[in-house]
Amino acid sequence: MTHSDGAAQTRTISPSAEGRTISHWFDNKSFAGTSGNTAPVTNPATGAVTGQVALASVEDARAVIDAAAAAFPAWRDTSLAKRTQVIFNFRELLNARKGELAEIITAEHGKVVSDALGEVSRGQEVVEFACGIAHLLKGGMTENASTNIDVSSIRQPVGPVGIISPFNFPAMVPMWFFPIAIAAGNTVVLKPSEKDPTAAIWMAELWAEAGLPAGVFNVLQGDKTAVDELLTHPAIKAISFVGSTPIAQYVYATGTAHGKRVQALGGAKNHAIVLPDADLDLAADAMVNAGFGSAGERCMAISALVAVGDIADELVAKIKDRTDTLEIGDGTLDSDMGPLVTKVHRDKVASYIDAGEGAGATIVVDG
Fold first, then answer.
1. Cα separation of 24 and 302, whole Å?
2. Lower CB count within 10 Å: N or C terminus of the chain?
3. HEC states along 224-247?
4. Catalytic residues
5. pTM for the predicted model, two decimal places
6. What average pLDDT does this structure show over 305-318?
7. Tens digits of per-residue pLDDT, 168-194?
């Protein structure tokens, strides 16, 4: 990748380029950082290392956060009309190039390209919602709330905000948050998962091309060092997090202890109940789609299915029949389900099967 200090032109980032470094991003340009520490990024379908992601030091994190803090006063004072125009530009660019982003997601997460495109589309829904932010930022006025006392309210941006996002949706989850934050006049520091960090840089380049001023959208790569600096740095006024429940508890406790507004969304395990009068073919289809979509790495993956009455054996048989037809493989090929994101994650999932068998369950589908 090459960058200039001026308006960036979005380029397709090749996730297969060996030896590439996925850097931080601030002031609308790449920032290599000074720590010298990196972590490998792999293609889950092949196991090949496709790059090294920079792991921020405290000093690197502060440099990125300082850029967001420096950009905040001017962005806060930018008119709603100008802010909205940038959001519209981003929306149009994203819509035209979402295929590029989907391929990047597949190359680093493993989910099939159609799943990745669906993820981008879900994120784009929030971008489109943010295009109407002007109406949503209106305040209120109540005349004579008490005798000769009027009450008014206004909505103002809080300042630089942090986003700590998970590996399973490297585009959608950040897009839950940053379109609204930016449209409302805040500046953003996004800390993506180190497992699939390239999508964040691609979106940063797109923002630059859309005309977003330098320092408004920034990317901080890294691990716990980067997270802790976001949670404790006084310039960061709010945090949004999605991830496991233990880390959500840590993020909430640490962030609020340092005076920040914190939104910490922990792990979810969806359950399903199938009643005796259900359409079992439809139920089986729904269970397979829920269990294996996005490589099973999402909160909507059904973790427990309760069959009511005497339908369990028939339902299990229908689910087995459908599961046997699934093509598991490279997400860029004609596959129904891609590989799990890392070998460590694969081994963790396999351990659940062993635990179930150890508890007395019968393994119906294996391998």
1. 35
2. C
3. HHHHHHHHHCCCCCEEEEECCHHH
4. 299
5. 0.89
6. 95
7. 999 999 999 999 999 999 999 999 999
